[in-house]
Predict the structure.
Amino acid sequence: MRPVWKENPSPGYQAIKALILGGFALVIVVPILVVISTSLASDKDIIDAGGYVLWPSHPTVKAYQTLFSGGLMGRAILVSVFVTIVGTAIALAVTIALAYATSRPVLFGRPVLLMVLFTLLFAPGIIPMFLVVKQLGLLDSLWSLILPGALGAFNFVVLRTFFMNVPGELLESARIDGASDFTILRRIIMPLSKAVIAVVGLFYAVGFWNAFFNALLYLNDTSKWPVQVILRTYVLQGKSLSADQLGVHPPPQPQSLQMAVVVVALVPIAMVYPFLQRHFTKGVITGAVKG
Amino acid sequence: MLKRTSSVARVKNGLPLKAKWRRDWQMVLLMIPGVVFLLVFFYLPVIGNVVAFQDFQPYLGIMHSEWNGLQNFVNLYANPDFWDALRNTLLLAAVQLLLFFPVPIGLALIVDSLVSNRFRRWFQTIAYLPHFLSWVLVVTLFQQSLGGAGFINNLLRQAGLDPIPFMTNPDTFPLLVVAQLIWKDAGWAMIIFLAALTTVDVSLYEAAAADGAGRWRRLWHITLPALRTVIVLLLILRIGDILSVGFEQFILQRDSVGPGAAEVLDTFTYYAGVVGGDWSSGAAAGLAKVVVGALLLWGANSLAHRLGEPGIFQRRS
Amino acid sequence: MISRRRFLQVTGAAIATSTLAACGDGGAANGGAKASGDLKLPTYKPFEGLHPDFPGAESGLEPGFLKFPADAVSSVKAPPLKSAVTALTETFATPPPPMGSNPMWQALNQALGGELRLTIGTDPGYPEKFATLLASDSLPDLMWLPPNQGIPNIGPMLEAKFQDLTKYLSGDAVLEYPNLAALKPASWRTAVVNGKIWGAPIPSTPFGQVMMGNPKTWAKVGGLQCTTADEFFAKCKELTNGTNYALEPAIINMLHMFGEWFGAPNAWRVNQDRSLTHLYETDNYKAAVEYAAKLWAAKVFYPDLNLADATPKTVNGQIAAQVVVGPRATADFRNLDPSLFVDTMIPFGHDGKAKPVYDMGYGTVGFTPFKKTDEGRIRELLALMDYLSAPFGTKEYLVKNFGVEGQQYALDAQKNPVLTKAGQQQAPGLVSALQIMNSPESVIFNPANPDDTKKIYATEQQLLKFAMRNPTAGTYSDTSSKVGPKLTAAFRDTIVDIVTGRQKLDAYDEALKRWKSGGGDKMRDEFAAVLPSSVPVTGS
């Protein structure tokens, strides 16, 4: 519905907007269509096209069948879903708590804030990280994929900034009413920051979904591997040694399989966003302040 | 409102520790999980960066590898390729900042101004999809369309024209890189601005419209100020991270345009350190980046304070 | 799609030429070069009881089999294991279903007499996995040591963490493990460092890269084979039109082929006075670079350097020729088009007179060292190596590569083992991981197209006429091990710039100067000092 105060759209503006958004959407949709088409293409389609297929003339789901035969992929998807959901939940809880606690001038607030900001600059090396994970007994456990990623400095900074922007009157009046800090966080801050929490949650979820390197290092048991590790082997396999003069080389995978892999990696996580969008409604703050 | 909090803060800060604890114990409690995570999964392993001052060998471990002082840094400083890579990195970062950074903001503003909710959702969902494609695939797709044997150049050839070397011209490489970045991540980066736009008080628009402010004045006086904090915040974060312009995107295209244009610090580190299993050189380059990043971060943040923005490191005052 | 293949062409292959040499015998650091002279390589005793249709030879010629030997014989007497063994390896196929739900793996364990617990690495990430295990002191019993993934300082690393196996394998001691005795001396040389043997080598093909072309494409210009570089140039120009191109854009690999035509040596040239000249220092290689630049300027290369896999384009005719790992790679093209048998280019002299060179490959994919342990365990692990190195055609080979008849494989009409549906799921990832840890000497075997075997065998015989081995193979240079990969990478950057016209040919000498002063000169001296007397002067 058009709000009463908004002008009627002029055809000129409309056209420009449509052109920009439509054009942007088009240059995205066509390549993605190529990915999907190729994943459904037959070997012949691929050879005729020399690689990528715009529209398969003999569509087949063979690539997907190959991908899901053997049971490895089904299990990996479950692992990834588990890691993503649990990881996002833990990471959100930890980050929200820390961001809120440092968003106001409290005891230890400043040193802790510095502690987090420092992590923006540095990255711990692979080997020391491995030693820590090993010492904690997390090797070969899915927690080794979840815990090290439970606090992202970028997400923390974003959340904290939004929390700081929550009108001070709201917090003061709640305090006067005797609300504890926990209550203020749960009843005021979080409802007011739904959109940004959704965004940060999405950032975390995507991070957990896409992560693969930790799994390679920390998990020896292939039955615990997440989707991304397996998908990568499909895309990269047969490439590494065949490039040099070493003789061992399984034949490269057909392009259709590689693209099917891309689609499988994309679909589950791409489905998350449309669900989050409903938190992106306007006027939440007005309502909250008035109510 | 800000004033009142700050006066309260000053009073609060004057309290003795015990009183502060009584007042803030819940907040401190909320910090504990995060702090524990930081200590265990960041500060403990980050000590491992001391290998930058060693000739580190995995089979000896940190305890038994030889110390070699600043040698790794001296090597870095003496290597002309390092300076080339640094120059390329700064150039590419500047181009990215100038040409990429505003795009998601613009997209968010247009999307936000859409009336049709259906179109809005439809566009957002499509726009963020490319973020999930790996660089390998993004570069490939660009090549399929813009490459020497790509779609557009084949059309040009059929029309009897000379092909245009979009993908292989070192001079236009920064533009290519930004185009790829926009394609892959503009829709994704737009989301955070959309979230910020939800905090705009609609009644302000109503009031402004009632006062006769047109769409541009409303954009200038209401929408943009609402985004200002987030824009500044992301800008600071980006500036602090300016020496990381990406690894995969560049290593994949390094051959096509040559290292003269495509060698950046991350790829330099890869060839100078990782290729030979030289962990120490890698760590030294990493530390050098930290110093630059910290300075830039601090500078950008101070500038933001001058402009009256909270930035990333600011007490609520 | 673009992938690590290109990535590794520049990096991995770069390492291949220099680090490969690094894991040869003799550690300059410890004066091991002398020790290596004293070392007796394991006695070579080929496996008897197999009758290939085309016999192999010491020269590297691979034996050819038209079909899988009927009534596979057994090559080991008893199951090798008494208890579980852990091993780090890498798979180049899709990871296998885990042991618990993989009947083929379970059957293998049963045959071995104990559990083989594999930690399976993938690409990318293997060197990191290797380094983390090493640094955290949680070594498995066995760890595959890849020669081309940039693991540095192999000598001191082996001494510090791994088991010296010399006394169990040197000379006749190896005869206790007949399948290991059937590995050729050339293969064993790659498992010798500092004059000690550190594991069983993992043979692959001894042949190096070749150029292959689609005969249908080349028919238009009278076939792939040429007698002069000018003829090749003319044919390439003729084949390039519209959206068709003559050559795959893998510049370094193509240069490798051109270098062979221009008589460039395999890595190093041994001069009359037994001094060494590096490939890059020869006029032959520079001439090849100039020739490649000429081809590039004529636009006969596919224009996108980033092309990852040219195979489909060679099959459909869009690209006429590409460089592949070796003469057996014809199978890759068969996979895409079962009716296609591609031609292999036989090197020729660039002017029709000079003698060309054919560069043989490294020959193995490294070796698998043992964690330090006691004699009983060493013998157990050696017995495991012996089992997993069982030659083509034996019962153990079937168990390792095909599983159990009736479950993972069945025999086709010609009595060749063929994976069943279950086998196709359980085998590839597991077999790849096992093959990368242990392998017998290679054979030519194309069960679906026995005729291919015959043709490849003939091609190999032709290539061997020009064969040249890297004279430093199996020797060690400290400098090469440390800075070789970086130097090669930097030099190759310049070459690619020259070929693609981004830099002038003058840049070659400048880059060569940097290569020399950056460590090339030192490398040459170190290699020359340990050059075995058995290595002939190049060209004689």
Q: What stands out?
A: The first strand of chain C starts at residue 64 and ends at 65. Chain C touches chain B through 45 residues (CB under 8 Å). DSSP finds 21 helices and 19 strands in chain C.
